[in-house]
Design brief:
With about 70 residues, this protein is mainly α. It is about 70% helix and about 0% strand. The chain has three helices and no strands.
């Protein structure tokens, strides 16, 4: 399971939805694949927006992230 910081809660929700759709996507078809790609695009843009305007405390949180490479 992926660890998300406090300010990444919207991203966590989108990624949870994507994984849920991937699980359902095997049985349904191309409409779900379109929705998955749309959500992935939104997630990428949201991450870019969030990380382009971090507060000093959020930068500290990113630096101390438990999944950060050592």
């Amino acid at each position: 399971m992926k660890f998300f910081l406090d300010f990444e809660s919207e991203v966590a929700e989108l990624e949870a939805r994507v994984s849920e759709l991937r699980h359902l996507g095997d049985a349904k078809g191309s409409k779900i694949l379109d929705e998955i790609s749309n959500l992935e695009f939104k997630t990428k843009n949201l991450l870019k927006a969030k990380y382009s305007s971090l507060t000093p405390w959020q930068r500290v949180q990113v630096a101390r992230h438990p999944e950060r490479p050592h």
